Structures are given as C-alpha cells and as structure tokens.
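Cross-check.
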Amino acid sequence: MKGLREFEIPYVGLKVGVHNFDYEIDRKFFDHFKDSPIQDCSVKVKLEFEKKETFFILKFFIDGNVNVECDRCLVPFNKSIFGDYTSYVKFSENADALQDEDEVLFIPREQTILDVSQLIYEYIILCLPMQRWGCKKPGEEAICNKEVLKYIAGEAAKTEETVDPRWAALKKLKN
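Predicted model, tokenized:
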C-alpha cells in the first residue's frame, strides 16, 4: 500500500533473534483502508519480531483509544482497546501453498520485505467489541443520541401497530 512504508520490515538484513518495532497509529493510517469502522485513534503497537532460520514469529501488543460510531445511534465515541496477537510467517517454494492459515502466513522465498500494515489493521479491528454502544460505565447515563433512540422506539411501536392483514388472519387461527 502506498504511503505505509514505515510498516515494511526488510527482514533480509536482520540478524537471527528478537527485534522490536514501535508504531504510533493515528487517523492517517486508517485512511489507507477502505470502509474502516475507525474514524480516529491514538493507538500504540509494539511488535516483537523474532527471526528464526526458516520462519518468523510476530507478537503484536496493542493499546490505545479509537473513535468509532455507536451501533445504536451512530454518534462517534472513544473506546479504549488492548490486545495481544501472535502470527507466524513461513517461507514456501510452492506458489499454490501460499494459502494463509489462521495464524500462519506464507511468503515466497524471493520476497525481501514483510509489510505488517494489514496485520496491524486487522488486529486493531479485532480489539473492538462485537457491540459498540456509546454508553459510559454501568449506572451512568448513556451518551447515545436521545433523539435517535426516541425515533427508533417510535418506529418499533409503529411496526407493531401496522400488522400485515395476512398475519392478522393467522393470529386468529392461533386462538
């Protein structure tokens, strides 16, 4: 990807052993990924790159804050995230065997640079919770847009009132 050169690791020149890389991720990073759910962020990524003779072990440590939209009302809010992820990179001579597995990436032996930007993007996305609600801690008032919540509640009430006549006939059979 153009503009993400700082995430390319020229592993050919590295000695066997552990090498540390630190990255500061901000909004500009996510501009390179289409349809990213993250609008803005301040995330630190520490990468422990362990070079072995025939493969690499990549350990990602992610910590920071991201700005995402609430799933209920679409109001942006800050969410703190953290996570630890490990990936393995192996060499493969066979082009057909370059199918990546869950935590194992296969690269051709003639490749000299490893781009970790896609991995960092995916791991940050994995740090997000399944449901992103703009609520504060339990017991505190939600920061959700009250007008949108009223609209949603009103639409739900309207939907229940206007029942398709075919379903109404089936409801009579139930009784």
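Residues 5-133 form one domain. Strands lie at 8-9, 17-25, 40-51, 55-69, 76-92, 104-108, 114-115. Passed to J.P. for a second look.
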